[in-house]
Amino acid sequence: MGNFKKVCVFCGSNSGHKKIFGDAALELGIELVKRKMDLIYGGGSVGLMGMVSQKVHDGGCNVLGIIPTALVPIEISGQAVGDVLTVSDMHERKAEMASRADAFIALPGGYGTMEELLEIISWSQLGIHRKPVGLLNIDGYYDCLLGLFDRGVEEGFIRNSARNIVISAKTAQELIEKMEAYVPLHNQAAPSESWNVKDPAVANL
Ligand code: AMP
After folding, report:
1. What residue ranges define each of the domains in the chain, with the CATH number in brackets?
2. In the UniProt record, does the keyword Hydrolase occur (predicted)?
3. Which atom of ligand 1 is the closest one to the Cα of 47?
């Protein structure tokens, strides 16, 4: 799949209890800057979102926060760094993130992060995009989720070829290297051109 430039990061609006999660968000920010990659994220300065966006912004790379109107108030999301695109709802936010990014990385997070991650995985399976999806498995946080995906394969709900969609690693550097080597192996449920994708380049064909 080769190199990518714009990375969408899904991550917690909280920082988690352990310092290691914040450290991982900062390390990811440093890695993106080192590779001159731009960040697309959920906007705001709360939790791990705030840490990764500040690091990328401080490093001189572009940061775009995409935030639904309801989350804009400073007391909810804090002050975003970089550019901010305000959208009407969560569906629009995720569609904008999906179309603007070349690759996706999930740091530890809660329901919001998991939902964004699972959607982008299933969109790859369906053939809506062919972009790499990476999971930063910090301190084993995602071991259970990865185990569940393996169980899905064992029990016949996830194809082996589709299990390959989820790339995971314990460090940002290793993850990005694996993502750059990613080649989709799965058959798309429906061909990319049959999806109503806003911009044909979005499907990365
Ligand atoms: P969670 O993993 O449940 O903390 O949710 C993380 C995701 O939900 C982020 O990527 C954001 O898209 C969104 N989110 C949740 N809370 C906020 C907030 N206070 N400000 C901005 N985005 C938020």
Report:
1. 6-183 (3.40.50.450)
2. yes
3. 4
